[in-house]
Amino acid sequence: MQVTAQNWPYPRWVAHRGAGKLAPENTLAAFRLGASFGYRMFECDVKLSADGVAFLLHDASLQRTSNGHGIAGEQAWSALAQLDAGSWHSRAFAGEPLPALDNIARFCLRNGYFLNIEIKPTPGQESLTGTVVAQQAARLWLGAVPPLLSSFRPEALMAAKAAQPELPRALLIDSLWSGWLESAQALGCVAIVANHALWDKASVARAKDAGFRTLSYTVNDEWAAQRLLDLGTDAVITDRVDLFPPAA
After folding, report:
1. Which of 34, 53, 122, 210 is placed for a possible disulfide with 49 were both Cys, Cβ 3.0 to 4.6 Å?
2. CA distance 152 to 7
3. Quick one: 13-238 is in which CATH superfamily?
């Protein structure tokens, strides 16, 4: 399926890193918990191991969300796959592993869920990560609704575009820096994912007039979610899968 701003299959509510803060982020356990609240689309962070395996992790280093140490992207997948990525959160998730992208793909595809992959390169590996993630996503989702590939790093999105131009892309922004809209256009993006505070009538109008879908991160308060819905934005990424019914 070719995803465009006009042909947009994704739901309005997106579970951040699987289930936000209710489970260890970027793990299969978090995806399962988010799904138990009725969520059908998930956001996750993906980077590369030293031997080129795409896997889920937000930080460059391992310390915050696993019992590992050092830069994750400098370690082989055989070592990363042995880490405990659950105990830091709570005892209930002790032993939860770091998932490879192909594990998450199987879970999503078999259950009819959608995915937003944030390409989160280890510094210095922006282009390589964009290329490999796009290639793996195209292979894993062949014949299905593809994941939305997003990144703060234009180099990663440019590499993803060169590798698999048919996959949908979105530019992530944390400020309305000079040229944000033009950069999204040059990258062939279908959407812009912004810090929710950046969206107002003017910025939403600019993005929509340019043909983009508008998504927001990370929305955890009812007043903020209602403001975005009133503005007519297209999707809300939230940690609060327990607060926002995804069908709303």
Report:
1. 53
2. 24
3. Phosphatidylinositol (PI) phosphodiesterase (3.20.20.190)
* Average pLDDT along the chain, 248 residues, taken 10 residues at a time: 96 97 98 98 98 98 98 98 98 98 98 98 98 98 98 98 98 98 98 98 98 98 98 98 89
Alpha carbon distance 47, 129 (integer Å): 6
Q: So where are the chain's domains?
A: 13-238
Q: What is the pTM of this model?
A: 0.98
Q: Is 89 a catalytic residue?
A: no
Give the Å distances, CA to CA, from 36 to 32, 132, 208, 215, 245. 6, 31, 33, 23, 11
Active-site annotation holds for 69? no
Question: Tokens in use for 47?
Answer: 């980077």
